[in-house]
Amino acid sequence: MHRVRIPVAEGVLDANETIARANREDFDRAGVAVLNLMSAPGSGKTALLERAIEAGLGETRIGVLEGDVQGSLDADRIAGLHVPVTQLNTDPGFGGECHLDANMVRSALPEVALGEIDLLVVENVGNLVCPAEFRIGEDARAMVCSVAEGEDKPLKYPLMFRSCELVVVNKVDLLPHLDFDLEKLRANVAAVNPEAELLTTSARSGEGIEAWSEWLAALPARRGAPA
Amino acid sequence: MHELALSRAIVNAALRHAGGQPVERIHVRLGSLRQAAPRSLGFYFEIVARETDCEGAELEVETLAGEAFEIDWIEVKEGSHA
Asked: Which CATH number goes with the domain that contains B65?
């Protein structure tokens, strides 16, 4: 009886990547562009989706997959706007995972009306750390960072900011009441992700919602999916 | 907190490569740009390895710069049983 070393040379997240690719194939077949929308809890992901849907997305038909640890509060809000929405709870019995992974999204796909939409927004669990690690089969990643969170967040959570092509800076209506420095945030985002696009919005006042809606509506065309 | 899911992924990959032999050591390379805490990985690993061929195995986490996160190799006890 002796020890034998077996080379593995496998990414820890390879199994997730394989399932993410299977999801991606399903999305491609259905001609649906997928956005993985992430943020800290309470940054305004759901409110921004509500405002974008209310503003209208042109020809783009949107659907939403709501990831939450528990409950259907967010899905109920979106359902009120008459777009297809599916609730995905990460694990209601056990307290729940802190992120969505490819397998969780895969398990929810039978309930997602892929044939009726051009764009699926997957609203991830509110968390700036864990969701960044797990691909779910998305075409693009966007994140919301509210001004109430402070301009240092890109430096504290670089993996999240590096993995997103769009950073939506929300709650800008609060700027007069805060010490928040928008230019410092821009510099911090650029320091970790020079490629990232940045939009400023207020879901409350409506500022910047048009640009946000246009960005969302253009995603299927940008990804080459038939709109 | 996602170290629980990552530990589960490590155990699953090790079991797949071990072919039913008891796993004694697992060597993982972890880049500092990943936000996975080595101590937390070890804590969850011990829990998710229970009642599998990885139970009691040593999880070695080699930390380095960059974004690497891979299982380099495993060591199994050969000839104990299949």
From this structure: 3.30.2320.50
